[in-house]
Design goal:
Blueprint lengths: L5 E5 L1 H21 L3 H4 L4 E8 L4 H10 L5 E9 L2 E12 L14 E4 L14 E5 L9 H11 L7 E8 L2 E10 L3 H8 L6 E4 L26 E3 L9 H12 L2 H11 L2 H13 L13 E5 L6 E5 L32 H7 L2 H17 L3 H20 L8 H6 L5 E3 L2 E3 L2 H15 L17 E3 L6 E5 L5 E6 L5 E7 L4 E3 L6 E9 L2 E9 L2
Parallel strand pairs: 2-7
Antiparallel strand pairs: 1-18, 2-3, 3-4, 4-5, 5-6, 6-8, 7-8, 9-10, 9-11, 11-12, 13-14, 15-16, 16-19, 17-18, 17-20, 20-21
Helix pairs in contact: 8-10, 11-13
Amino acid sequence: MAILRYRSTCNTLFQRSLVLICLLVSIGAAAQTEGNEVFGVDQILQVDVVFASDNFWNELEAEYDGDQEYVEAQVSLSGVNGTEVIDQVGIRLKGNSSMFHPGDKKSFKIDFNEFVPGQAYDGLKKLNFSNGFKDPTFIREKIFFDVCQEAGILSPRANFAEVTFNGESWGFYTIIEQIDDQFLDRSIGDDDGNLFKAGSNFGGGDGEASLEYLGSSQASYTSSYVLKNNEEEDDWGDLIDFVDFINNSSDAVFESELGDWLDLTAYLRSAALDNLFSNLDTYTLSARNYYIYHNTTTGLWEWIKWDANEVFGSYAMGVGGSMTTLDLDFDGGNENRPLLQRILQNETLLNAYYAEMCELRTQWFNPEFLEPRMDALKALIEDAVLADDNKMYSNNQFQNNFNVDQGGMGGSLYGLKPFVEDRVAYMDQQLDCTPSSDVLDFAAETTLVFPNPASHEVTVVSHPLASGLRVVDSMGREMCSLERSESIRIDVSSWSNGVFWVQSLHDGALMTVPFMVQH
């Protein structure tokens, strides 16, 4: 059956009373949003780092091998909004596999308030610099995170920089936003809950952030996850309860109650995008490179992406037999990933996952959207990349890898454009994304709201037998009523930031689905 569509009839009197207030709030929020100068437009920042000592490289390496403390430096940052010089800034090396980048061009982190509490740049406390490991084009991570932003998937923002250390050209880097309280406040408006990072699993032992249940003892999980905030409380009970539910609930309870634990639509969309881009160095396969956050406003766990330098099928460890990352099954991945595997083994949840995949295929994962984006980014960075004498790959490999496979560490690196074309062709052979497809029959079972968070429009797909559909704010005030129609999009561009709920009645029960508006 086709997706049911609804027309929104907004409460215009209430909205008119909010128009001026929301306009002022939106203008103020836009001016104050941390990172807008760094990430608001595509650009190449000039970042000049001056260490007090000529022995700075030995100091950085010693700290990476030891306590990973920061080395003090002065940093000058120049972008489209001018130049700012900041003293007493912390610098340290970072990364795991990226440390195999040849030479001294390693990934690193800047902490502006390490030595001066409250010090920031563009409102940001930290910035991460990725060295282009296993990416001749330098745009894999940037374009993936840009698509995440477009699709409403929680992820850091990305941009580019040319870097010097003590006046010496150090190379061309990708700048990645830090996942911290500032990111949480900006992206979902809540930063009080526990934020966990998947462990690196390079340290032996269990080490995999697989979301497998390891018992009720907190100590059983500390080699797999890292609590990034609320360290004084150090209470992992919410994570253990969530993992217990994932692994030990019955099939019926898992299907009916997963949405009470997890921002389900957002997770399905995030997992579907990983599959389309063959982003496997994450929960899907390696069980690392992701964050989960327990939202205290909604009570739901939020999935946050991290470290995407090996998208476009560059990470293939564990993909065996005749299968490649180009023809990766839609339910592909490591079998010891209970959250994803239980979803894919459940018909209702699997169809919802397929529906998110179809939406991503239609809107973003296609040559028509991605190839002009690739061309624009290449034009932006080409001169800077060609001038980087410390990069991992040659100038010819940079030029060619947009269109042709290139040899690389760990195997062939797919050409970006043919990868998308081939992956789309495979998908279209395996999955029917027409509106009448049985894949979209999930609409008869549930209510979905996406993107979440939303800034301009939100889409509602609701149960066909639901009645009295409306959207309310956190005070219970009605924002919109929903009527059956060809359109399912609701304009939220003038709404204030916050949490809203889609409410409907079915079989005498009130169903509610939360979503976030964040401008």
